[in-house]
């Protein structure tokens, strides 16, 4: 995104306006929240740190190396874990956060390099990621009603559904 | 200050132009199209509402199992359509979904949960195959998918919300009447397929 306010704001608006990044961040927040406050705290720093590190690495390498369609995996895995609502060990949730962060961050960083933009954009992306995952996981952790938890699971199933359709679009070549 | 920040953010997001990592064209149109598509097709809308109504009649766990499983199975049907795997009798399947789901609601049928889930899931594949792939050229497939899934989930939620009248005798009668109406509409859809 080009906001006209500099690379940091471009990065922030990129996260907010790009569903292929925003949806996995929301799903990661939901997964962390469903697994409790400890998982939420771990994810907050693991996802953001991995996103930033992956982004800088992708920027330095300058190539995506993987097709953008691999982000579909984030939708399927994160959505599936949220929909099934299985209690996971905190290290597993954190590891999932790292994997998602590195994957998406790398693609973002490579994209920034290919577009010959400032690497500072990654700071905006990481900042926005931190805020979104913090708000989402905190909201989900605070949910007490069984119905609210089911609503989160339904949202997870929507993420899987979107991922499946994305996969279809990418195979068909319409994304 | 805070009051000005909201509109300012909206303006900034509206004037922002795409550049970063992913090519993002036709997002707004794709999203709105996806959002509109399930609502605009009466066959799809009625069947989705019937799923919600039936779930509300059955109560837990069906009331949350249907909305969790349906979008995933529907998207699988959409995936099959997108990768070019043909399905015979899609339109018939969609019309039959309205008939059978309407009948289930009208009779307040209580089959075993697995049977109910299979019935709903089977029809979800037909709906996904037919409607999940109708993207106009130049629009974003991802945005279309998001809109399509949200609208379908919204129709389920509307059906469940209407189904909250189930505890009252008059409410139960109204739900059964609604199920009958869906079934009759389904017969109409079926007639149109064969006509």
Set out the fold topology:
The complex is a heterodimer of chains A (175) and B (195).
Chain A: H1 7-17, H2 19-34, H3 37-61, H4 71-84, H5 90-114, H6 121-142, H7 146-172
Chain B: H1 2-15, H2 27-40, H3 42-58, H4 62-82, H5 90-107, H6 113-131, H7 141-162, H8 169-194
Helix pairs in contact in B: 2-7, 3-4, 3-5, 3-7, 3-8, 4-6, 4-7, 5-6, 5-8
Provide the descriptors you would attach to this structure in a database record:
A: 175 residues; mainly alpha; B: 195 residues
What does this structure look like?
The complex is a heterodimer of chains A (175) and B (195). By secondary structure, chain A is mainly α. Chain A has one domain. The radius of gyration of chain A is 16 Å and the shape is globular. About 6% of the residues of chain B have low confidence. Chain B has one domain. Chain B is globular and about 50 Å long. Chains A and B meet through α1, α2, α5 and α7 of A and α1, α4 and α7 of B.
Q: What count of helical segments of chain A does DSSP give?
A: 7
Structural class of chain B: mainly alpha
Written as H for each helix and E for each strand, in order along the chain, the element string of chain B is HHHHHHHH
Rounded mean pLDDT score of chain A: 89
Count of the separate structural domains of chain B: 1
Largest sheet of chain A: none
Shape of chain B: globular
The percentage of residues in β strands of chain A lies in under 5%
What is the general shape of chain A? globular
Largest sheet of chain B: none
How much strand of chain B?
under 5%
- In whole angstroms, how far apart are the ends of chain B? 63 Å
